[in-house]
Amino acid sequence: MRGLVQVVILGLLLGGVYALMASGLTLLFGVMRVVNLAHAAFMLVAAYMAFFAFDILDIDPFVSLPAIMVVMFLGGAALYRLLFPRIEGSPRYGEMTVLMTFGLAFIAEGLMSFFFTGTFRTASPSYATDAFRVGSFFIPTAQLYASGASIVLLTGLWAFLNFTRTGYGVRATMQNRTAAQIVGVDVRRVSTISFGIGMALAGASGALISFLFPFFPARHWQWIAILLSLIVLGGLGSLKGAVIGALILAVASSLVTDYVGSAWSPMTFFLALFLILVVRPQGLFGKEQRL
Amino acid sequence: MVKPEVTRPPEFEGSGVEITELEPPTSSRKGRMVFAGVVLLALLLVPALQPFVGFYSYMLQLGIVVLMWVAMTSSWNILGGYTGYISLGHNLFFGLGGYTSGLLLVHYGLSPFATALLAGVVTMFIGLVAGLITLRTRGPAFIISTIALLLMTSLIMDNWDLVGGSNGMDLPLPEIPLIWLKVPFYYAMLVAAVGAVFLGYRVQHSKLGLALRAIAQDEIKAEVAGIDTRRLKVLAFALSAYFPGVVGAIWGYNLTYLRPTIFFIIGVAAQLVLMVIIGGRGTVAGPIIGAALVVALNEVAISQFGSTELNIVVTGVILIVVLLFFPLGIIGTLREKGRLPAVLDWD
Question: What is the ipTM of this complex?
Answer without folding.
Answer: 0.88
